[in-house]
Amino acid sequence: MEFTELCKQSSNHCAYSPNGQYLATVVGYRLVVRDVASLKAIQLYACNETIQQIAWSPDSLLILAASYKLGTFQVWRLDDPDWTATVSEGLAGLSRVQWMPDARHIWSISNHQLRSTVYSLVDGTTHPLPAPKTPTEGWALRCDGRYLAVCERQRSTDHLHLLDTTTWQTVHAFPCGTNDLRHLQWSPDGRYLAIWDGLFDPRVFVYLPTGQLVAEYAPDPCGAPETGRPRTGGLGIRTVAWAPSAQLLALGGYNGRVTLLNHYTWKPVAEWGHPKRLETSRETRDAVVYREIREPFRTMGYEIATLPLTMAAETSDDAVATPKSGVTRLAFSATGDYVLTSDGRLSQTLWIRRLVDVQLVAVVVQAQPILTAAWHPRQPDLLAFACGGGYVHLWKGETLGCELLEVPTTHFAVRKLAWSPDGASLLLMDKDKFCLAFPLNADALGGGVSPTLDCAGRPLESTFPSHAP
């Protein structure tokens, strides 16, 4: 990889534009827009207060910056420096701002979810919407952007509202079976909506957009042998992920186990855990264990470890609000060939499984806790991760294995990383600096999923109008 020079940023507020051509960064009160290929600043915007959120419009023409302290957000247009818009929520405050799919409407959620409003950048009109239970996880947009699902609490009961984003009207509203709904997620094909509570309720519900309950799955809290279901230990679901094909739903519990449900019967097809000690067994027959080799003040690379192997584990206090135990990372690769998981008590370890036979193929054991990990958006078997040091770690598939790359600079620790939407560059962030890494063989990394197809292999249709405000 080739690395750029370091540039300043604040609070890790860095975001690629959806087309991958621009990179927006925050430096104090300023919003800087750079060209990704050269890192040259092409626009500089001054804000009224410290920026807590930035977001690109889906067409990459507009960008907003929100200040929760002032309860305002500002919008600029890249190709017209004189055009700007400012919206103030007044005494209601501001807790979240979200672009709508047409790139000409912005959804604003006030403090304590007292008010929820859609603002039009075309004619200045406003549309009130149901206020979600939480500003970040109490709602979800369908993959095509046509429908917005919002969870609302009414008379001590959770209700889901399905809104048409072209008319802002509620097309369906129905009560849910949850006790205290906290999360919801559309399937990649837009056919199903999965909802779950979180810490204290292990159930997950799958609904059709019309409100029909398709499935309810609840692991046995006692792990009874006759049920064949995993023991939850009294805690619920921590992470949920759909496979790109929408045919599998993965549930990661606070008990450290992952359950795969199929979309035909909504029954488990596979289930596994994250043991502290790896033994030679049928489950590990295809697995390669990559262990990081370290010397004082320097990381040397990887070695292939032999089994049995005991990994370092952290103690967990289940009495705290957010215990360390459980599946903290659960992500499918771009084509759904692999699934990445990790357990909060084994923070130095990554587990990679092949989905075709649900076989463990790689275990990566680091010397330090893994802070961030991300699959390449197009190449099916490329994973980047970092542990807070001056290195980028790559898993490059079953054939090539793990690789370690040193960032050629001093006083820079990779604490967060993100691939560009086209996969041509990798954003590396420290506390107050960032740089970009460009793969030497960019054409090889650009393969995989065609940009004209969605994750299920169907042609994409543009849902964003070309008109400008």
UniProtKB/TrEMBL annotation:
<dbReference type="GO" id="GO:1990810">
    <property type="term" value="P:microtubule anchoring at mitotic spindle pole body"/>
</dbReference>
<dbReference type="InterPro" id="IPR015943">
    <property type="entry name" value="WD40/YVTN_repeat-like_dom_sf"/>
</dbReference>
<protein>
    <submittedName>
        <fullName>YVTN repeat-like/Quino protein amine dehydrogenase</fullName>
    </submittedName>
</protein>
<dbReference type="InterPro" id="IPR052778">
    <property type="entry name" value="Centrosome-WD_assoc"/>
</dbReference>
<dbReference type="GO" id="GO:0005815">
    <property type="term" value="C:microtubule organizing center"/>
</dbReference>
<dbReference type="InterPro" id="IPR001680">
    <property type="entry name" value="WD40_rpt"/>
</dbReference>
<dbReference type="InterPro" id="IPR036322">
    <property type="entry name" value="WD40_repeat_dom_sf"/>
</dbReference>
<dbReference type="GO" id="GO:1990811">
    <property type="term" value="C:MWP complex"/>
</dbReference>
